[in-house]
């Protein structure tokens, strides 16, 4: 049987300033949902941001580190591996990291790395399904980020 892939890496060039892109990626769980956060409910529980999306469910995200305008990282509870009243362990989460680089002409290169799939609690099937859905999800989310950053009114 093949080992479960541990990481997803993506990058995108956005025609917006680093400051503009930072203002979007520095919000914990900005990637939850389909880009329309108007119906989402957000709350804080201890160190965790909890995002309730009526279409896609509940997401728990905790800031893990940041260097303004350059780097942000988050711990993201994958799936419903633990109940909302249970403190997630590191094995219940993946690490999502974003790097921003200013390009000539005022554009920004965004690189995302999500890692930790191979050590998630649960079955190999759960880990494979998680990485498959997140692989597709990051393609969509980076397109949403690009649209939001390049069109301030979005």
TrEMBL record:
Q: Which organism is it from?
A: Streptantibioticus silvisoli
Activator of Hsp90 ATPase homologue 1/2-like C-terminal domain sequence ranges: 15-149
Which family does the record claim for this protein? Answer: Belongs to the AHA1 family.
**What InterPro entries does the entry give?**
ASHA1/2-like_C, START-like_dom_sf
Instruction: State the name under which the record lists this protein.
Output: SRPBCC domain-containing protein
Q: Where are the transmembrane segments?
A: none
Superkingdom per UniProt:
Bacteria
